[in-house]
Amino acid sequence: MPTDALRTAGAGHAVAHDRLDQELAGLDQLELTERTRAPVGLRLWSAAWPKVAAVMLVVAIWQFLVWREWKPRFVLPSPLEVGSTLWNDLFTAELWRAVGYTMRRAVVGFAVSILIGGALGIAVTRFRVLRTAVGSMITGLQTMPSIAWFPLAILLFKLTEQAILFVVVLGAAPSIANGIIAGVDSVPPLLRRAGVTMGARGVSLYRDVVIPAAMPTVVTGLKQGWAFSWRSLMAGELLVIIPGTTSLGHQLHFAREFSDADGLIATMIVILVIGILVDSLVFGRIERSVLLRRGLLTEKAYEPVRTMRRRELMAAAAVR
Amino acid sequence: MTVLEPHQLSRGAAPVAGAAPRDPAVRIAGVTKRFGAGAAAVTALDQISLDVERGEFLCIVGASGCGKSTLLNLVAGLDAPTSGTVEVQGRVALMFQEAALLPWRTAVQNVELALKLRGVARKERRPQALDLLDLVRLRDVADRRPHELSGGMRQRVALARALAQGADVLLMDEPFGALDAITRDVLHDELERVAAEQQLTIVFVTHNVREAARLGDRIVLLTSRPGRVAGEFGVPVERPRRIESPEVSAIAAEVTVRLREEVRRHAD
């Protein structure tokens, strides 16, 4: 029983209150849903096997093409050859230095994109004039292939880190800004109204209601921004070769120069795997938790919604 | 039951002498609200005058288009009248047909936000929020998020949140309209209990005449297009009431007759 500290009603109503408490408790029990989760092993397996099967299929087609001698071996090596090159590379400092170098660029570029895209997105949602002025331009920027920016970037910044950063930010910031704009636009008016009636205004309305309500779309924008920045970065590293640096794009470039097909495909696999890992481990997780928390996604491993009523019926049957 | 003139209004079961100086919680004086301008202007409310006493449970009933929600918005200060004045003593909270809880916050966090926006110190928020959830018998589900609660439970969290706003006057816009009949009946009992304990002044808008008779100390019937006060009915039935009681049914029947007259007026 809850405490009676807040009760001020007369004792004459005590019976009615007890009955009311029972009725409320009964309704609550009938309507509450119960959550159950499948064991960890089963969940991992059910998440993993379709991916494994898809990769196997791709490797099988690749191996088939090699066996058919569709292209000479020095152009299209077999999966096994590429695999062993990749395996050996994994134990060299060079690969990890290149990964480190590229990742540093990626993180810096993405961070700058968040700052610029975030500021732009928030500004557009706040000021109507700005929306009219640049709203559609942001979407336009998004459709611009990032590689088309490089000639200008190289003219402006020569073959420098700034040239790469410039294009990475131009690739990612519009997606991030658009995510924020779309997110804020889609906040249900009812939630805003609830916030306003609670006394939220200006900053507090944004911090406590609008931004959290916009989060699912904002995260989608961030995820897309990451994909764009990663693509722009790879294009940049191929085109803007800065002497004395080893990056993944750089490795790709020289593998082609030296007709090292094994190394080339191995590097491509590394690039692909990093892109997938960041997408699923970082953004996938954030997105999932944001959606789950809002009830916008039902966990697949949750059993289909089961009501307590059924449990009660089973308990009753057991008594009988 | 007789239709009362405004000057002889009593508060049903509430012990107030008619001669005492009046200090209403809400005073609506000659309020008119028009939307739009020129020939296309629509008059939603026309010269509404209405006082709500402290601790009174007032139900507003009317057919579609009577401007009930407009009236609540005016009292809540979300909108301004075209002419006339609205005075409210104390804080106002508003509840809607949907609970309008923030879906990323748990039940207790939703209540805490209202406390935070009212300026309650961080350390005191959690215990106060839990006490309020206790009041609506939901302490056990404090850590669930809105999507894990039933519609009736969500409305009770919304009620706790409204109380967390420190509301003296609670405005309710068809709060139980989307609930099933059984849950609604139980929540009537619950609201009656909480209102008495917290000595709330309530303005409760509904389409449902029986609900109005079950809950209200007084029922105000509004006409449609434009909204005018068509009649007032005292509900001198002792609390706690039951929705199935003959007294409640009799008053509901009487109000329904008047409401039907109003609706027929729009046929031609």
Automatic annotation (TrEMBL), chain A:
One of the record's GO cellular component terms: plasma membrane
Predominant cellular place of this UniProt entry's protein: membrane
Protein name: Unannotated protein
CDD domains listed in its UniProt record: TM_PBP2
Keyword Lipoprotein in annotation: no
SUPFAM superfamilies, sorted: MetI-like
GO biological process terms on file: transmembrane transport
Membrane topology recorded in Swiss-Prot or TrEMBL: Multi-pass membrane protein
PROSITE patterns documented for this protein: ABC_TM1
InterPro entries: MetI-like (IPR000515), MetI-like_sf (IPR035906)
Residues of the ABC transmembrane type-1 domain: 99-283
Keywords: Cell membrane, Membrane, Transmembrane, Transmembrane helix, Transport
Compartments where located: Cell membrane
Pfam families linked to this entry: BPD_transp_1 (PF00528)
Bilayer-crossing regions: 48-67, 106-127, 133-157, 164-184, 264-284
TrEMBL record, chain B:
UniProt keyword RNA-binding present: no
Pfam families to which the protein is assigned, alphabetical: ABC_tran
Stored SUPFAM superfamilies: P-loop containing nucleoside triphosphate hydrolases
Domain spans labelled ABC transporter: 26-249
Keywords for the protein's UniProt record, in alphabetical order: ATP-binding, Nucleotide-binding, Transport
Keyword Nucleotide-binding found: yes
MF terms in GO: ATP binding; ATP hydrolysis activity
Record-linked PANTHER family: ALIPHATIC SULFONATES IMPORT ATP-BINDING PROTEIN SSUB, TAURINE IMPORT ATP-BINDING PROTEIN-RELATED
Name of the protein in its database record: Unannotated protein
